[in-house]
Amino acid sequence: MPQLNPNPWFFIMLTSWLTYSMIIQPKLLTFLSANPPSSKTPVVPNTTPWTWPWT
Fold it and tell me: Which regions span the lipid bilayer (predicted)?
């Protein structure tokens, strides 16, 4: 069963993971967010409880 032989696939996986970690990821992390998170405090709406007719 050739799919159980990890020799070629492990090297391909390792190479692609190292490529992602060392080349692509730092380039992606340098991009500035177009919509940065705001520092406003969240507003809690004032809600009234529902009055159930059968209670």
Answer: 6-24
Q: What's the CA gap between 9 and 3, in Å, rounded?
A: 9
DSSP state of 55: -
Residue 12 Cα to chain centre, angstroms: 24
Q: For residue 14, what pLDDT band results from cuts at 50, 70 and 90?
A: very high
The secondary structure of 1-54 as a DSSP string is -GGG--HHHHHHHHHHHHHIIIIIHHHHHTSPPSSPPP-PPPPPP---PPPPTT
0.85 exceeded by pTM: no
Handedness of CA 8, 10, 11, 16 (dihedral sign): positive
